[in-house]
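Co-fold these.
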Amino acid sequence: MSPKITVELLRQLRQAMRNGKCIAEPIQAYIIPSGDAHQSEYIAPCDCRREFICGFNGSAGTAIVTEQHAALWTDGRYFLQASQQMDNNWTLMKMGLKETLSQEDWLISVLPENSKVGVDPWIIAADQWKNMSKALSSAGHSLVAVQANLIDAIWEDRPARPNTKLIALGLKYTGLTWQDKITALRGKMAERKISWFVVTALDEIAWLFNLRGSDIEYNPVFFAYAIIGISSIKLFVDSKRLVDPAIRQHLELDSPSKPDLTVQCFPYESVFSELNAVCAALAPKDKMWICDKASCALTQVIPKAHRAAIPYTPLCLAKAVKNPTEIQGMKMAHIKDAVALCELFAWLEKEIPKGTVTEISAADKAEELRSQQKDFVGLSFPTISSVGPNGAIIHYRPLPETNRTLSLNEVYLIDSGAQYRDGTTDVTRTVHFGTPSDYEKECFTYVLKGHIAVSAAVFPNGTKGHLLDSFARAALWDSGLDYLHGTGHGVGCFLNVHEGPCGISYKTFADEPLEAGMIVSDEPGYYEDGSFGIRLENVVLVVPAKTKYNYRNRGSLTFEPLTLVPIQLKMINTDLLTQKERDWVNDYHRKCLETIGAEMERQGRKEALDWLIRETQPIV
Amino acid sequence: MSPKITVELLRQLRQAMRNGKCIAEPIQAYIIPSGDAHQSEYIAPCDCRREFICGFNGSAGTAIVTEQHAALWTDGRYFLQASQQMDNNWTLMKMGLKETLSQEDWLISVLPENSKVGVDPWIIAADQWKNMSKALSSAGHSLVAVQANLIDAIWEDRPARPNTKLIALGLKYTGLTWQDKITALRGKMAERKISWFVVTALDEIAWLFNLRGSDIEYNPVFFAYAIIGISSIKLFVDSKRLVDPAIRQHLELDSPSKPDLTVQCFPYESVFSELNAVCAALAPKDKMWICDKASCALTQVIPKAHRAAIPYTPLCLAKAVKNPTEIQGMKMAHIKDAVALCELFAWLEKEIPKGTVTEISAADKAEELRSQQKDFVGLSFPTISSVGPNGAIIHYRPLPETNRTLSLNEVYLIDSGAQYRDGTTDVTRTVHFGTPSDYEKECFTYVLKGHIAVSAAVFPNGTKGHLLDSFARAALWDSGLDYLHGTGHGVGCFLNVHEGPCGISYKTFADEPLEAGMIVSDEPGYYEDGSFGIRLENVVLVVPAKTKYNYRNRGSLTFEPLTLVPIQLKMINTDLLTQKERDWVNDYHRKCLETIGAEMERQGRKEALDWLIRETQPIV
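Predicted complex below.
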């Protein structure tokens, strides 16, 4: 891929930084975070400001432009990609390496004395604003809110904000009405003496109201805010979306059942003024919840005395613990998804020898097969379909200029998933269609051992996911190997494929304890730059574990795999597995055969079934 | 043990809280932390204010007294002990349990509006002050510094501050002169553009100046402060201690070799005024290091603009990474210590059947045997010598009223260690002199598996110790068991038996990465209230590990046990061990036999050698 040429854009941006038309007084640096006003991970095209200015389109990264410099911070997943997408006006700041300065330290090192650093307060989180502001102040600089976004000012053909059709999800999918969810939320608010809660995360709003949209690719959300009071509900969303009678009925807009369950609708843009009005009418003891990851702009509307900033919201936690209906839906979605993926592998085996399958065509085929499954909505993230050296680019996405042909000689890694109305999937398999080398098998087997160590782990109730991260690495570490990403993330139910507040990572100490009903991924890997990548990912459900003893009646938990796609036996060096690990693989494959086999029969997918039977033979 | 009766003391304290003689204005609550002005873990009798007021004498805990309430916070190690030592005027607040309020939340829940909460600013750390003050302010209360300590005001026979003789350690023990240490420290200060460093931790001062004292039982430290500048050295210590010609010569007080290595001595108490004087003379850009765990009183002397608060000091890190001389000394100390402990076990086997050995006499015997070893100075902490149910009290210390007799029917746990001039030891063994039950063996074996999993772990350079904690628990977790303490702590070299900044704990996320040369303990356990306790502790040295591969040239680390005392085979259910674990035990015992056996022969300790030979037979 060739880098984006940014000379002219940087010139224009620097002019805007000095220009009285855009800002009250000149700034010496401008920060361009990657998020939108809801701190979404995936964002709509109109919000891709960081990509617009520097060319790098990965999911995480922050750009900073000063009069003399332009630098981009991103993490280990994206070092290679960012270096290829940016021209030499940009310096790549590799986060996580010891020698890399933080954004604050870098700014302090390059800025003249008493500089002003600008940022759009809508797209910086309140906690980030606080840290950045403190660091800059301590060095004599200041962080200033620039209300008009300077990138928007120079972005001529900036796309419009999407405004897609909403769909209402019934009880069959959600298990709980939105009214019940509001009532439960108000219970939590009452417990903590909270009178208002400002909801800014798009997936929390979608989950709370049992609504979905398609404003952001891969994430079935829609642009909205909500302010929930003890007896009122304010929803901020474009009024055109509320014309649909199905939506009006779902929200009971025309005939509310109870006064305190009446949804008041406001335009999306009026959240600022309406929040101001709510704050003006607060009683002295009223407290208002807002997530500390909400935008600085909205957070600062709430007077400090009334503001109760929380690291994650009660909706985030309630959404993470799936109810029985959601669990059933996630299971169904994973069964359908496995049928499609097994079909893909059976098809690839036949087609690859012809030399016509590429990373892109394989990804397209995967999407086509998934789209044949019931309640398919779309993909849950861009498919990572990668051959040989491309597999070492952790968040690779095949493009025409990087597209490799699948062959009998190279490892193939496919990390893909879909949105179904009943659930969200995310699965990675690494396979070889010819004969893998001993070294590839050895590395694969260490990754498999790590995957099993997490999946089969038994741990006390109340354990945080980060305490399990090292289990996934122990076999790799023993041989001097490792991988530079976390082991797992929360997964939404027909919602975002990445969600908090739980996960499995050495980096996350603010994660919430795992509870039965939570759903996370288990995805250790190993990557050898320039040669191959290995990752093995299942989505797993936290379930109670039966143990011989029960210390202090705490109870124990373990994981149940929801993903049921065979692990390629050809890639395993079975000599490196313990008997327990071999049993795990055999049990897992038996379950794949039983569950997915039955669904394939039901769907009459004979070829895939033959493939599944062959791929789930027990290790002896 | 019977609880301390505190009715009258609490009455007096509450009077002092209201009384204009002691304080400027009445306070509604008074916090009594457990530390001294140096935030020491072990403290001198004159500093045992928290024990004085509530009776609980464990190493960690904070008491808070209000007009109506008196409450003590401590952790899982001390729940039982605290409940036994405190009368019913006190509420035990069990830290780590979900339902237990934090000190801040508790204060907010019990205090009348606009309350003042007092604390002695010398014995609360600056970071704790900040957190507490913030939490109280947000609820309309305030934290106030009470200069005259209110406990001292009601403590009639409070002991005097100790002032023991100093000893100077030569290069043979330290490996580096104090001048070299100062020079290295100044190098770190220059790197970070720091002009002054206020040293408040007693072990850091002792390590820096190659001096030891015995002001605090078990910890070979002395009351002092130091302020190190780029070209000056200020030591605050009682002048009587500097009369000794050996000390004068060691510090070159009468004939300094260089002006910038001249030690200026000041009285201990003058640190406040002298720091004030240094601060008054600071240039605008001068920065001063102080640990954020230093006292609030001293920290607040430094104007904010000049203060660079650090979570741990460069001395703390330099001290943690032992040099070759220190490592050699630690090895020697552990060999001598193992000889004494093996002798103890051989003696116990003979004596226990007579029915005359108690927890106290066994502990005394252990001390006697250790004291016969070369360069013995004293114990490194109070010996935990515990039989049967007493073993479940994690930091048990036998007292006449709790003293049990060792028998052939109960598990015996002894956690003990000593200070030698060449090193500090800390070792726990759990043994049975009759026939352990299957359940005791099963639990012991899980603990052993956890111990081995940490000891044999291989991990990348740069890994923090907390990432290894779960390895120690996996086998217990599998059976629904666990233990409520961390797995390991840093160990000083002829210094404090607990030191930072490294460790192995699920609780510690601020730990520094493990490096070759660091020394930590590896001590998983299992405790069954009312019946028995199991712990298995070795002190281990971080060493480079040879691995098959070397990902990104990071290099790998592992542990080498310094403790070389047999693990009782009788307690092991070998069926539960893997072949790798059996090999580990056999290798370990071979090393015990070779190394400790040779020393026993040299010392002519025949009976102990016979015991050692028998106890190190390989598992087949």
